[in-house]
Amino acid sequence: MPIYMGFFEKPVVRDRTLHGDVKAKGYEGWIELTGMMYDQSLSGLEVRVVKFVDRVSPLLAREINGGMPKLVVIAFVGDDGTALVTHILRDTLIVRQGAGGTKWVGQVEKPLEAVTLNCSTASTNMKDKAPDMPRWSLRQTKPPV
Fold it and tell me: What range defines the domain where residue 54 resides?
């Protein structure tokens, strides 16, 4: 299941500089992720995403501790192009970026990087056909069993 991340200046207005290489219909210019996780820190809610090192990597690095807060949308996309799970992060800043690890894609080994985002609030929307993912609040420490 592909995971895509898009940066927005405000709802429906895409960020002018942080464009990725995704070409999938409805997600053109988004950034492809290989994974994500939430973490609660002293400075708020953090989301760590893992992605391939690509042309947007240096642009993300420039945003660290100097960029303006953005709206970030992370979508887990089904085979039909529908977002099955959507995470919406508000007032998001990029706070860390670090390279490490690789992943084989076909016959090519591609480098990975982790990017840590800090946001003021987050919400999650799930479609009814999301694959076996229980609903739970980000404020809970553990998902329901």
Answer: 3-126
pLDDT digits (tens, 9 = 90+) for 55-110: 999 999 999 978 899 999 999 999 888 999 999 999 999 999 998 888 888 888 89
88/38 Cα distance (integer angstroms) = 12
Total number of domains in the chain: 1
**Residue 90: both structure tokens together:** 């508000």
Q: Are 46 and 39 in contact (CB under 8 A)?
A: yes
Burial class (CB in 10 A: 0-12, 13-18, 19+), 69: middle
pLDDT band at 135 (very low <50, low <70, confident <90, very high): very low
Name 59's Cβ contacts closer than 8 Å, sequence gap at least 6: 17, 18
